[in-house]
Amino acid sequence: MSVLSSIKHARDKVLDARDSRRLANLCRQLLTERGQPNSVNIATSALKLYENLGLASQHQFFNLLAEEFDPDPGVVLLLAERYAVNRNPDTLLALSQAAESPRQELFRRLNRAPGGTAVLVHMRELMLKGLATNPHWRSVDADFEHLLSSWFNPGFLQMQKIDWGSPARLLEQLIAHEAVHAIVDWNDLRRRLQPDRRCFAFFHPALPLEPLIFVEVALLSEMPNAVGALLDEKSVAADPKSFKVATFYSISNCQPGLRGISLGNFLIKQVAKALSEELPQLKTFCTLSPIPSFGRWLSKLDAIESTRLKPKVVAQLSAQLESFKARKQEALPAWDAMGIKDRALIETLCGFYLLHTSSTGGHSSDPVARFHLGNGARLERVNPQADLSKKAAKESHGFMVNYLYDLDQIEANHEAFMGDSVQASRAIKQYF
Amino acid sequence: MSVLSSIKHARDKVLDARDSRRLANLCRQLLTERGQPNSVNIATSALKLYENLGLASQHQFFNLLAEEFDPDPGVVLLLAERYAVNRNPDTLLALSQAAESPRQELFRRLNRAPGGTAVLVHMRELMLKGLATNPHWRSVDADFEHLLSSWFNPGFLQMQKIDWGSPARLLEQLIAHEAVHAIVDWNDLRRRLQPDRRCFAFFHPALPLEPLIFVEVALLSEMPNAVGALLDEKSVAADPKSFKVATFYSISNCQPGLRGISLGNFLIKQVAKALSEELPQLKTFCTLSPIPSFGRWLSKLDAIESTRLKPKVVAQLSAQLESFKARKQEALPAWDAMGIKDRALIETLCGFYLLHTSSTGGHSSDPVARFHLGNGARLERVNPQADLSKKAAKESHGFMVNYLYDLDQIEANHEAFMGDSVQASRAIKQYF
Amino acid sequence: MSVLSSIKHARDKVLDARDSRRLANLCRQLLTERGQPNSVNIATSALKLYENLGLASQHQFFNLLAEEFDPDPGVVLLLAERYAVNRNPDTLLALSQAAESPRQELFRRLNRAPGGTAVLVHMRELMLKGLATNPHWRSVDADFEHLLSSWFNPGFLQMQKIDWGSPARLLEQLIAHEAVHAIVDWNDLRRRLQPDRRCFAFFHPALPLEPLIFVEVALLSEMPNAVGALLDEKSVAADPKSFKVATFYSISNCQPGLRGISLGNFLIKQVAKALSEELPQLKTFCTLSPIPSFGRWLSKLDAIESTRLKPKVVAQLSAQLESFKARKQEALPAWDAMGIKDRALIETLCGFYLLHTSSTGGHSSDPVARFHLGNGARLERVNPQADLSKKAAKESHGFMVNYLYDLDQIEANHEAFMGDSVQASRAIKQYF
Amino acid sequence: MSVLSSIKHARDKVLDARDSRRLANLCRQLLTERGQPNSVNIATSALKLYENLGLASQHQFFNLLAEEFDPDPGVVLLLAERYAVNRNPDTLLALSQAAESPRQELFRRLNRAPGGTAVLVHMRELMLKGLATNPHWRSVDADFEHLLSSWFNPGFLQMQKIDWGSPARLLEQLIAHEAVHAIVDWNDLRRRLQPDRRCFAFFHPALPLEPLIFVEVALLSEMPNAVGALLDEKSVAADPKSFKVATFYSISNCQPGLRGISLGNFLIKQVAKALSEELPQLKTFCTLSPIPSFGRWLSKLDAIESTRLKPKVVAQLSAQLESFKARKQEALPAWDAMGIKDRALIETLCGFYLLHTSSTGGHSSDPVARFHLGNGARLERVNPQADLSKKAAKESHGFMVNYLYDLDQIEANHEAFMGDSVQASRAIKQYF
Q1: Which of A58, A117, C183, C286 has its CA 20 to 30 A from that of C254?
Q2: At B252, which helix (H) or strand (E)?
Q3: Cα(C360)–Cα(C371) distance, integer angstroms
Q4: Closest Cα of chain B to A160: distance in Å?
């Protein structure tokens, strides 16, 4: 480090220290009575100071949040005793106020600053990055999650259709955040926004230009068994008269600071509702989804018996499995080089794997499966050679899966899944 | 009651009873895990049932909310003890979850229904009407207030200018809700929306067509001492070059269901900021406000010594006061029939009354004064014969008052007021 | 006139004279080559000068327009000869340019000023008021009409639905311009904008806040026979399920400067198309129209034989007519005081009168009938006691008429009408 | 050609012939009285038929337009004689109606179809492509130009700012139509829409999604002498405080069907006005323009004496010119390989070339120079090595030029230019 940059560095540290103290004081002032009439200005100043701090000082600020704004244990205990002895509105109200972290009120008041919501969401995003190494921030994170969950309640979200007439500024965010099937360029994007494709996103009024989550839909004549055709830039848009099936083929979150806030479930159902109103000819709503953990599970198949599988299933598959496991020392051959029997075995195992998805999220369960099954969808069809990309070859040997959203069955399906019974089509269930 | 209507009445009661049970079950279901994937539909059904109930059944529903959705005292006590013994994120998180009323989560989930926010706000409005005779609803109301205060945080409100180009549907709500100087008809309204008058309102994105609160402003060449000219339908709009003073002459809440949620303070300051940016020539921001409690206070003036007045003030006024009180048996004469000395005395007493406004809201304090002084405004000028309406004659002998909003002094003024010292212009302070 | 106002008057005359000369020069400059690069500024200055002139000077300006901007007769004649001798694109182009009034190019260039279109439309409005006494302005008016007809071509008009959510600024123009059934106040207006009533207007993009023409529609369960119920402020909006008939009950022009530009015909048909798309259950599109000239015609009934009536019709009615005409010395009694026979006679005469509407607009024809029959509508039903207002009693003895718009028959109906044969329902035709 | 495609071809010809006849009949019907009430439908059908015709049949339709819809020479001559003998509004009106091509009324009625304006503009675009080989279409084209010039009058155009928040559908049209400095991809485009660059376009309300013309502007600290830096995708947006000069560096028409309609002149001036209002610190408005004809002129330099140059200029340059011309047999070397003297000579010749631009558009004049000088701009600075692209090397040896728009001098500059005197900076004039 040069002398000059050392000096600059030292000066920045001094400034940061000063600004950190100021920020702490503004936060304390916000929570006092006398900060009230001026709270918008104080919150504005506080968030500006925070944004200009260096990373280390921002982490210090998270420490301050974790240490200084907890409820007072003695007071809470006293009031909990009173409420236990004499349950009435007065004792309850006193308890409620004392038991809520002052942090939550602090966040609510910081949110009074213009643009405050966006800063708070990004603040949490930064904190989440450091959470693993700073486990004492968990209480701060819990308060964030609790508040954001209330503020980003579906009742406050606005679903918008996104198409080729949307602002470029918004469209480039789709390119940036697409997490399932990367958008290569603007031509790729344009194809995904043509009339036989749809894209919908949730927005929050306080973040008007930032999509929170978006889903891409293909309108098709039948349930698709491969993603290649869906993404083909050069394909011609289909005639609306042929639309029978709406397939959700990609869903991506755009705001890491909203982790844990349920959005996808609501978006899929609201989109299904909107589409079935616009296009009554749509009879089927399904997904074409990746199975990102299948490959890993398959590579550790030895452990299969130790899981909670039904004995008859293991018995049924055991001969094939033995041969399969014996060969596991070598890597699995590529699909093209595989024999028919092996192909059949893998397909069966894929159905098996998904059918045993656990709602409580055991390590072997596929996260995408848990999401859709937890939403109340049904496991419908396993598709080999459905995604020919390298990523999919590695993650899932090219397999993809359709989940079916039958809006009338969602609640029953979900309830069954909570009891660890996965609802599936007859085609899948027959294997087992 | 006729036989037929008796039958209908009986049938309605049966239906209501059935729907009440359904509503209760839907609320319970919403809070369970299995209600999750379908929660938007459940919430929609629940709110529809609620809206169609008769009044008595809606009150029963409030009873249910008050009785069934409190935190569990035993659990809270146990977790409060753990937190007191071992303060860490885990014990805190457990305590926080247990100490928050399940009612709050219930309201958040009901809010997932389309249009849910409006129903909840109107639900609280109804509950507030019966609160005095149903004090056990206070815990429900506290949860409403806590949640709505978070949801109607200034960071989520949108200030909009309202003018003659606004939708008629919106403008008729100004006519309906104007609480200070009634809007007689559409011509009266049109005058208040001409270029030398302004109107601003807060909206919440979930209630897009319902203003929450609005303020009316007159742009003038000097601080006004009477309201008649401001409201004169036939007055000609002033030249923008003459604007020097922005006077807030009316502020009205539109949503009784948001009682206790601070809105006016934020609106006034945001309007002052917006106007000073649009019209840099504006140097003064003030109000022309009623003094609704002055008349009542004056009629009970005997009690003045028993208040916490400074002795020298009482001494100073005592001679006049004695004569004044002696005559209190008779009603005060009308202003026109009053002698000069009496006029001067009343003006002095009016300043005196306002100058002794208490931030803690003693019974003798004027509510409008408490609002503006609490916002950090300064008591600027007392104006006799400022409002010639019958209502004002009765409430305040025709007096009005200007409060001055000096944005740089707001925090200091507020702090002084919290210490029960009212900041005032020299003109007012010299009396005492 | 006082001395001071005399001086002011004299000064204004001098200024007007100066500005008139400036205006004339700017107009000449606009038409030269050198005015081109600056034409927007020149046009802006010219229109500003025009608007600030006194009325007399504005009339002088119309004189200038009439005298100085005609085509050159000699040149036109020469080029017409060349074109007659040698018809080709060159001779045609030369002729076209010479034969068009330079006034038209002048108006096109004046229109380059921001807001120019509105000024030109209002300029023509003013000129039309003086046209009767200044017949030499007719060539100016013809150029105005020719240009405005091109600019206000239906392809450039935008139909907008107007409802209670429209800006008050726009709604007050409905109140101002309603020419058939006056809108009494805002409550009356609100009723006409409820969901079982519709209002549509044409706008031109260059006059965004000024409706050009608007039509009011009632959605009903059957063709109405009286207007009172339609206009009843206190009536409750009907259930959309009951809508079967759309009735145009009022159509009003808002821009006198657009006299002679066809708008109503296009508006009615575009509204009918839009409504039948929105509400496929609508099977009938009709009017409920006044018959403003019926009363006058009836009072001059002696002249009936001298018209081109079919002999058998006259024969059929002659006995009644003789008795009727004999009594014409006295005024007709009010409807309530009339005998049954007289009532029947008048109803017959009303149908007779309308059935003999002439497309060439003879003096005895009803203008509203000519408008709708010329649009291709059919005469459907005559309704006695349909409008109980004083105005209607005087104009049409309270009669109103339904014209039926059967979109498939419009062209045939119109063609027949051009041959002076009025298409009518069997109910009407049977009289004759 | 296969048998099958022969059959299809033959069938298409038959259908086209049938549709051509129908189209001709609809056009005739549109011009008769009986087509009036149904004209929107007739126009809609006619334009649909036209659009579906094959190219040969569309050309046949242009022939029909050219042959059948001219004014009647005999009638025009008769009425021109009457007007010449007796000039009054009646004779003028009769003449005007007879002398205008019925084609114009036909176009106005076709324009009544929804979307008609766009079809007509594209119809003219197609006709212009064949005009050179079909000179008899010139009368049709003249009517198109006359009408479109009236309809696309600046008073009806709407200037819109285009930026990164504009719809992608619109932005891709910029990429398609940029005619000066091609937009390579969306990253290139994004750079051109950052805050130190501006883009404005004219739109017509009847073609809401199609820009008519757009101009790109760079906001800079000084007048630029090369285009490379302006177009550098990776350059960082400049600080608004540094803006002093607004440079128009590209202007492109998007609608070939509007050839001959003046748009660029109005757009540049309206943009200059808007920018000087938004950013009062902008003191200079100039261009950085190509000189597309300079290279060709230079290669034919022998002819220079035969032009209307001043003798002293020729004398001054003659020695250099002789040597230059002597070498013309060989191609000019590339700039890098050129000696200093040659470079100076070419720069002088470039200024000389531009300074002798003729307003009447002699073959040797540069079209871009004629456009800007005709708009009233001044020739400000010649910049060598200003455009390093191959195209510019070929067209202009890499030279570009700044034209200065001094809004106060525009009219005088234009007037001088009309007299063939080019206004230029002292730096340029000193050469000569």
Answers
A1: C286
A2: strand B245-253
A3: 11
A4: 14
Q: Contacts of residue D73 in chain C, CB cutoff 8 Å?
A: 80, 83-84, 87
For residue A418, CA distances in Å to A355, A374, A376, A404, D335 come to 13, 8, 10, 17, 78
SS3 B411: helix
Q: Are A292 and A391 in contact (CB under 8 A)?
A: no
Closest to A359 (Cα-Cα) out of A374, A341, A346: A374
- Complete DSSP assignment for D209-255: T--SEEEEEEEESS--S-SHHHH-TTPPPPPGGG--EEEEEEEEE--
Q: From D98, which residue of chain C is nearest by alpha-carbon distance?
A: C99
CA distance to partner chain A, nearest, from residue D175 (Å): 12
Residues of C with CB under 8 A from a CB of B: 164-169, 171-172, 185-186, 190, 193
Residues of chain A found within 8 Å of residue B116, distances taken between Cβ atoms = 155
Q: Looking at beta carbons, which residues of chain D come within 8 Å of C76?
A: 80, 83-84, 95, 99
Distance of alpha carbon A76 from alpha carbon B79, whole angstroms:
10
Residues 6+ apart with CB under 8 A from C350: C291, C294, C382, C384, C396, C397, C399, C401
Q: What are φ and ψ of residue D214, in 5° steps?
A: -140, 155
Spell out the residues 6+ positions from residue B91 whose beta carbon is closer than 8 angstroms to its own: B79, B82, B83
Q: How many CB pairs under 8 A join A and B?
A: 182
What lies within 8 Å, CB to CB, of D158 at 6+ separation is C205, D202, D203, D204, D205
Which residues in chain A have their CB less than 8 angstroms from residue D164's CB? 167-169
How far is Cα B322 from Cα B316, in angstroms, rounded to an integer?
11
Tens digit of each residue's pLDDT, chain D (432 residues): 577 778 878 878 888 899 999 999 999 999 987 777 889 999 999 999 999 999 999 999 999 999 999 999 999 999 999 999 999 999 999 999 999 999 999 999 999 999 999 999 999 999 999 999 999 999 999 999 999 999 999 999 999 999 999 999 999 999 999 999 999 999 999 999 999 999 999 999 999 989 999 999 999 999 999 999 999 999 999 999 999 999 999 999 999 999 999 999 999 999 999 999 999 999 999 999 999 999 888 877 765 544 545 566 566 666 666 666 666 545 667 777 777 777 877 888 898 889 888 887 666 689 999 999 999 999 999 999 999 999 998 899 999 999 999 988 988 899 899 888 899 999 888 766
**Among chain B residues, CA nearest to A203:** B205
Q: Can you read off the two tokens belonging to residue B135?
A: 């004090």
Q: How far is C269 from chain B (nearest CA, A)?
A: 27
Helices (H) then strands (E): counts for chain D: 19, 8
Q: What is the pTM of this model?
A: 0.91
ipTM of the complex: 0.90
3-class secondary structure, D19: helix
CA–CA separation, B356 and B379 (whole Å): 11
> Could you tell me whether strands B197-203 and B213-220 are parallel, antiparallel, or unpaired per DSSP bridges?
antiparallel
DSSP letter for B419, please. Answer: T
Which site among D25, D26, D30, D34 would you substitute to test the C interface, given the most C Cβ atoms closer than 10 Å to its Cβ? D34
Locate C370 and state its tokens.
């000519």
Per CB-CB distance under 8 Å, the chain D contacts of A193 are: 168
Q: Which residue has the tokens 């066809």?
A: C262
